[in-house]
Structures are given as structure tokens and as C-alpha cells.
Amino acid sequence: MKQVLRWIGWIVVVLLALVVLAAGALYATSAYRLSQTYDVTVEDLPVSPDSATVARGRHVAVTRSCGDCHGSALAGSTAVDNFMIGTLRAPNLTPGGVGGTYTDTDWIRALRHGVAPDGTPLVFMPSWEYYYLSKEDLGALIAYLKQLPPVDRQMAEPELGPMGRAMMVMGQGNFRLSAARIDHEAPRPEAPEPSPTAAYGEYLSHSCEGCHGQDLSGGPISGAPPSWPPAANITPHEAGIRAWTKQDFFRAMREKKRPDGSSIDPVMPADMGKMTDQELTALWRYLQTVEPKPGPDT
């Protein structure tokens, strides 16, 4: 009996040692990736302070759901606070926060490339979505951010928990660093002119991928709190929106109601429903062209 207990003890010790080694390797690898620097070439963009440009920038900020992470006044917010995932704090973008020190180049580097002014990667910043913004939309967004009323609030840096670090190292979903995901040297695709077309809808759809996935088939949202429901399948599959009409889609976006009258979970950003009729038509037309997918749970 003593021999058996001794063997069990050794097995427990070995397992604990392996856990400690794995945790150490995970921390070291994640710390290395977070400390890497990226030397990116930043393009020149027109950043005009005129009222029309600022208004366009506000529309971009609202419909791209910047406020979901940064707060309604864009003055910073804690998007996720979970021991295993981490404390994901979004910075104060107003002149009372990072907006007070960011140059136009800093804004472009952060939004287009996911890189901080010191060259290190930004955490949980979906720059791979903003990478596709046209020069006009990105310039307008920066113009809007620069004229925000200052809010005196300092946000601490985000902190990744063990699961958050593991997902970051494995490059999973929203925890995959945008700076590592983006090909900074590749020619950026030209954005289509605003119009009620599928091509323009594809341009707008990049903001949907963070929750609905790159193939838009939905499923569990990477990095979301456990209380969040899975994202819906928005492909033209029978498990998605095949049976929906354009009017159904507009109602879902603007009234948060499904065709059967049931309510869409508040996790779905209501601000996306503030797209113009032209934008929603374009997005609807694009969704009709994507490959139907059954979704991960079908």
C-alpha cells in the first residue's frame, strides 16, 4: 500500500511540475509577443477638420461600434473583467486620454496596423477590421476623434489572464494580435465607392467578422464573457438567414427583432442599425452572395 501511495505521490509531483512548466512557457511566449515591436510604414491621409468630414467620422465611429469597447463617450471602458480571460480595458480616446498625445501618424498606426506609438502590438484591438477602411473614412474617423470633448480619465493597460494569454499565443479569434495578423507590406485593397451594391456591402461587413467569424457563420464569440450568447449565423443557409427578406434584415438591424418577433440579444451592437438605408441595402446584398454555411453547432 505504501508503494502505491508513493507512486501516486510521484505522479502528482510530476503532473504539478508539468503544469508549472507549461504555465511558465505560456507566460514567457505571450510576454515575448506582447513586447515585440513592429516598424510599419504609415501612409499619408487627408485629415480635415471641416464639419462634413467630422460628421462622416462620427458616423464611422458609431456604425463600426467603437463605443462598445471604448464607452459611449469614447472615454475608455472595461470591456471584459474575468480572471481566466483577463481585464480588457479600452483606452480613453478623447484629448483627456491617448487622444491628447496621439499624432495623426499614431492614429493611423493604431487603427490601420494595431500598433502603439512605441511599436508594440495593441491588445484586443480589431485593427484587422479597420485595415480595410478607405482613406476617406479613416481620415474622417481620425478628424472626429481629434475634436472629441476631453474627458479626464486614465485607463490602466489591459491585463491578460491565463486563458487570454493561451488564446493570444494560439492566435485564436479576437485574441490574435492584429499587428501579427496584418501583412503590413501588402498593397491594401482599394475600397469601393459608397453605393447600394454587394461590393460596398463586403467593405462594410468586415465589422461583422469579430463576432460572426470570417465566414459569418456565427458561433461562440472569442474572448466574450461566458454570459454572452453565440453569434448568429448570417449566411444564406437554412440555419442562417436564407428565409429572411430585406425587410426582415432591416428590422433586425434597426429594431433588434427577428422575423418571428423575438428580440435579438442586446450583445448585438444597436449602433450598427444606425447605418444608412444605402449601407444596410449594400450589406444585405452582400450577405446574399456569401457561401452558405451550416454554422459550428448545426
Summarize this entry quickly.
With 298 residues, this protein is mainly alpha-helical. The protein is built from 12 helices and 3 strands.
Q: Would you write up a description of this structure?
A:
The chain has 12 helices and 3 strands, in the order αααββαααβαααααα. With 298 residues, it is mainly α. The protein has 2 domains: 123 residues; 90 residues, no CATH class. It has a 3-stranded antiparallel sheet. β1 and β2 form a beta hairpin. α9 packs across α12. It is globular and about 80 Å long. The model has no long low-confidence stretch (mean pLDDT 90).
Q: What are the main properties of this structure?
A:
3 strands, 2 domains, 298 residues, mainly alpha, 3-stranded antiparallel β-sheet, single chain
| Average residue pLDDT | 90
What's the total number of strands? 3
Helix segment count? 12
Oligomerization: single chain
Question: Which value, in Å, is the CA radius of gyration?
Answer: 22 Å
Instruction: Identify the strand order in the major beta sheet.
Output: 1-2-3
Categorize the overall geometry.
globular
Structural class assignment = mainly alpha
Strand content: under 5%
**Uncertain segments of ≥5 residues (pLDDT<50)?**
none
Write the layout of secondary structure elements.
Elements lengths: L1 H34 L15 H13 L3 H4 L6 E6 L3 E5 L13 H10 L13 H4 L4 H12 L12 E2 L1 H9 L7 H4 L16 H8 L3 H4 L33 H10 L21 H11 L11
Antiparallel strand pairs: 1-2, 2-3
Helix pairs in contact: 1-7, 2-6, 9-12
